[in-house]
Specification:
Layout (H helix, E strand, L loop, with lengths): L24 E6 L8 H12 L2 E6 L3 E6 L4 E2 L4 E2 L2 E5 L2 E2 L7 H4 L8 H7 L2 E8 L6 H18 L5 E4 L4 E4 H5 L5 H9 L1 E6 L6 E6 L8 E6 L4 H17 L9 E6 L2 E14 L7 E5 L11
């Protein structure tokens, strides 16, 4: 749910988004330093979540795995992606800045966790950009859930692609359909009040990992919670249907805070209004729209 924070932040359009399909980094946060679990234990858990895996490197500094059920297709060759887990190390600099912390709406005690957790383990994928986007999402979800089991003392996950934060308990307790979990785990839907106006912005960050667009709404009057709900619905539609939406198309809008075919909102691709700069699917909410629109 949007939090109407009183913090005032400046627009920074010099901040660029990562390249689409980039490495998917996961930060696991700990209050105390932990040791790398035994290889046999990690193997067992990884295979329970990801199917047949091969551990091709293991020591105190890192553990690296090949998930055999996944094949990434590149121009030069077809290869298995790799999943890497690093040792637990001290967090040397803040993982998130004040602007990003203000958008941690899915982790109510985020500030407290960030203060208390002084250590982190990194999880990441390599050579995964060549996967079909749904396969990459499934692999990422399975990896996230494996990490939650491998490290029961972890307090929270921070996803580097979107700066979204979730408690470990939220991941363990998640009962959403598998095809919706990547968006729930790793895509951050944000809410902003525009200083000195009645305007609001809702947008998303994180879909580019799957080579898919984020969404953006610039509006007034509408219930922001309903707009957040609409954003998640559009993101799920984009994911389920390989993003069939083109500039000039329409999507079902909101009527009495519910999605309705009686209301049609135009959409177009344009540069984001809020950092990081990226192409987004801008949803024109008709009579509730703010800003200059053609």
């Amino acid at each position: 749910m949007p939090d109407n924070t009183e913090n005032i932040f400046q627009q920074n359009l010099n901040e660029k988004a990562p390249q689409p399909g980039t490495v998917f980094f996961i930060h696991l946060l700990f209050e105390e330093k932990c040791e790398m679990p035994q290889q046999t234990e990690i193997n067992k858990i990884m295979e329970r979540h990801l199917g047949k895996t091969e551990c091709f490197s293991y020591d105190k500094a890192s553990a690296s795995f090949i998930p055999k059920n996944y094949i990434a297709h590149f121009k030069v060759a077809d290869v298995n992606p790799q999943l890497i887990i690093t040792e637990c190390t001290e967090i040397k600099k803040p993982l998130l800045n004040d602007f990003e912390i203000a958008q941690l709406n899915d982790c109510p005690n985020a500030s407290e966790i960030l203060k208390e957790c002084k250590y982190q383990v990194l999880g990441m994928d390599m050579l995964a950009a060549g996967l079909d986007y749904k396969e990459r999402a499934n692999m990422s979800v399975e990896f996230i859930e494996a990490l939650a089991e491998i490290f029961p003392d972890c307090k929270a996950f921070v996803f580097d692609n979107s700066h979204k934060m979730l408690s470990r308990e939220s991941i363990v307790a998640c009962n959403l359909p598998v095809e919706q979990r990547f968006i729930y785990y790793a895509v951050n839907v944000r809410f902003f009040n525009i200083e000195g106006t009645d305007d609001m912005i809702v947008d998303s960050v994180g879909m580019s990992t799957l080579w898919l667009p984020d969404v953006q709404y610039h509006f007034n009057t509408l219930n922001p919670n309903s707009v957040v709900y609409h954003a998640y619905s559009v993101l799920c539609y984009i994911y389920d249907n390989e993003c069939p939406i083109k500039s000039g198309d329409c999507v079902d809008g909101l009527e009495n805070d519910e999605m309705s075919k009686n209301v049609q909102w135009n959409v177009q691709y344009e540069e984001s209004l809020i950092q990081p700069v990226r192409e987004v699917l801008d949803v024109n909410v008709g009579k509730y729209a703010s800003g200059n629109r053609e």
